[in-house]
Known about the structure:
The protein has eleven helices and two strands. It is an all-alpha fold. The termini are far apart.
Amino acid sequence: xxxxxxxxxxxxxxxxxxxxxxxxxxxxxxxxxxxxxxxxxxxxxxxxxxxxxxxxxxxxxxxxxxxxxxxxxxxxxxxxxxxxxxxxxxxxxxxxxxxxxxxxxxxxxxxxxxxxxxxxxxxxxxxxxxxxxxxxxxxxxxxxxxxxxxxxxxxxxxxxxxxxxxxxxxxxxxxxxxxxxxxxxxxxxxxxxxxxxxxxxxxxxxxxxxxxxxxxxxxxxxxxxxxxxxxxxxxxxxxxxxxxxxxxxxxxxxxxxxxxxxxxxxxxxxxxxxxxxxxxxxxxxxxxxxxxxxxxxxxxxxxxxxxxxxxxxxxxxxxxxx
Length: 322
């Protein structure tokens, strides 16, 4: 009995830890999903918003980050449940999670350039940045990151073909990035992407800042554009937090005796889930035009629900008196 109690206690503790982690992630993700559905409903209800490149890029960022969080949370649940399945079914989830993760900084760069063009060239937008051409920019972002991912996978160590169809694996990024050269390649690409986006955001911010000194009129719109680009820089910093995992892991090991699973969950929740949750919502709910439509939709919903409740109460009162 004494020999069997420690393993049983360890199993109970591990199961309780998994339940707590899942109960923390799922409500957080559902709240994020509700907020995103509200904003996307605004875009679907008021289609004239999508005539502006700014809102098209923002809507695309919302969809991209939703896909990224959806795949990340699904992979998290599969790992928590220790679900093993063949690599052919695991690969699409890992591909979508990786591509959408790298899409976000490039979309932020595109949104900063769009604000720069709107201020510097208010009357003559370049053809590529017109609202009817914005899909070319979004498609280019997806194609670029897909090519990078294919290159990353092709330089890895080749495994026997039958393993892809017969060997169940735990669906984790380490399954794809198994070799040292792949990890180095991914790190170099990520550094280049974030460095490029940082330069773009800094350049557009400085140019807009200089433009405010020249313009005597319409300073309010220029100031808003400058704050928007600064917010994109904050969003980029939130994305970079995902790469602080080695630092936080070392700090946690120095000051606390956490298990590797707890450290991985801490990094996932604080540096992937929360930044992806805050990034689009901060940008969306600070937009006065968008928030006016949100209030209008909420008021319409409340007004439509109130007569229904009154009608139900009247029917019930009439039936009871009769």
